[in-house]
Amino acid sequence: MQKTENMSKIKLFTLKEAAAYMGKSIHNISYLITYGRINKYSQTGKIVKKINNGITYVSKKELDNYSKQWSNQLKQRRDLLKIKDQELAFYHLSEKERTKHIHRLHPYLGKFIPQLVEYYLQKYFKVEDLILDPFMGSGTTLAVCSELGMKSIGIDISEFNCMIARAKLEHYDLEKVSKEIDKIYNQTKIFSDNWNLHYKITDPIIKNNDYLNSWFAKRSLAEISFYKSKISEYEYQDILKIILTRAARSSRLVHHYDIATPRIPIKEGESYTCRKHLNKLCMPLDRAIGKIKIYSNDTKRRIQEFSELRQTDNFQILHNDSRTIDLQNNIYDKWKNKKIDGIFTSPPYVGQIDYHEQHRYAYEIFGIPRDDDKEIGRKKLGKSKSAHIKYQTGISEVFANVIKAMNPESKIFIVANDKFNLYPKIIKDAGLEQIGFRERPVEARAEGDKAAYSEKIFECGIAKP
C-alpha cells in the first residue's frame, strides 16, 4: 500500500488495516501507540506525536518487530512450564478471539477462555445433555452451552455475577434493546452537558456513600446516579446496569495504569506520572459519560454477534450457595425428571481473588447485598495451611452436594491451577474419582504478566459405592 513517495519506503497501515493484519481490534493497535510500542505516522510518512487533521498510520515493520518480540517473550514463559501437550494452549487465537462477543461485556477476574469450554463440551457431551457450572462466575460455561444448543445451569454466591450472566444470556429483541441503550445514553448526555457543581444527588444509596464519594469525581457520580435513576423506565434493565457498572469501573479516581486492582483512590484533579502514557502527567477521569458511550456501542455489537451464534436459550441461573442448594428441586422446576449429565467448572483459586470486592463499585451503586463470608478461598483469608484446609472442605462440599442431582455416569471437568496440590483430597472427599488429567499453558493475560502460568484440568467421575 503506497500512500506517497515517502510512504513507498515504509509500508504503512491505517489503524483499521493494522488491526486486520494483526488479527486484533483497532483499540489494541491504539494501545500499542499509547504505550510507545510502535510509532504514530502522518500521511507523509513522518513520525508524529499528534495527528491534527487526517488519518493516523502505523508501520508494518514496527508491528512485525513488536509481534516477534512479544512472541519470543511468550515462548520463554511456555518453555519454563515444560508442558509438551500444547493442544489446549490455543496459541493460534488472538486476544480478540479469546474474548469474543459477550465474553467481554464486563471485566471479570478469574474467568477462563470460551474455547477451552467448547473443546470439552464438544468432545465429551451430546447436544441434549444438561451441563452444570456450580461456580458460574460471569457465565462462560453457560454462554458456550447456548452456542452449542445445550441446556445449562449456573450457580453463584455473588448476586452481581448472576446479573452479569443474565445480561449475557438474555434473549433480546435486538431492535428494542438497541433503542433502549441509545435512549438512556442520550438522556444522560443531555444531563451531563447541563451539569454544574451546584447539582445535588438525590439517590439515597449514592448521595451519602463514603466509598462512592471517595472513588468518583463529583460529575462522574452525578452522571452515574442520573443513568441509574432512568433504568427502571426500560425493559432490559440488567444489560443497562452492566453498561453502567462497566463504565463506572473505568471512571473511578484511579491511575490509568491501575484499573484492574486499585487499592486506594487518588484525589480528583490530582496529576501523576503515568506509566501507561509514557510517563506523561495525567489526571484521573472526572466524568463517566465518555465511557458510557463507548460501552453502550460495544455492548450493542456484542449482543448482536451472540444472537447470531446462539442455538438455544435453555438455561437456568441460580443465586445460591452450591454447598447447600437443593439442586434437584430447582432442576425439576424447569426440566421435569431431568438429571445433570456433566460439569465443566473452574472453582475459585485459594487466596487469589475476593470475588465480591473486585466489583465493589457495582454493589455500592445498586445497594446489592453481599455474601463475602460465603466465598470459598477468598483472598482476604490468605494462603496459609488453615486456609488450604478450609478451602478443601468448601470445594469438596460443593461437589458432594451437587452430585446428588447427577446421573451416575456423569463426567466432571474441574479447571484449577492447584499449585498447592489440594485437589486430590478434594476429589476424594467429594465422593469423586479422578479418571484423567491434563495441563495447559496459559497465554499471558496482559503484557505486564511476567510469570509462567498453567492450569490443570481434572477429569472425574462419581465414585462407585
**Beta-strand proportion:** 5-15%
Summarize the helix and strand pattern as letters. Answer: EHHEEEHHHEHEHHHHHEEHEHEHHEHEE
Rough shape?
Answer: globular
Mean pLDDT: 89
Can you describe this structure in just a few lines?
The chain is of the alpha/beta class and 465 residues long. It has 16 helices and 13 strands. Helices cover 40% and strands 14% of the residues.
Account of the protein in words:
By secondary structure, this protein is an alpha/beta fold. The chain has 3 domains: 6-72, Multidrug-efflux Transporter Regulator, Chain: A, Domain 2 (Orthogonal Bundle); 83-158 and 313-462, Rossmann fold (3-Layer(aba) Sandwich), CATH 3.40.50.150; 174-305, no CATH class. The protein has 16 helices and 13 strands. A 7-stranded mixed beta sheet has the order 9-6-5-10-11-13-12, sandwiched between helices. The protein has a two-stranded antiparallel sheet with strand order 1-4. A two-stranded antiparallel sheet has the order 2-3. Helix 1 packs across helix 2 (26-34) and helix 11 (237-250) crosses helix 12.
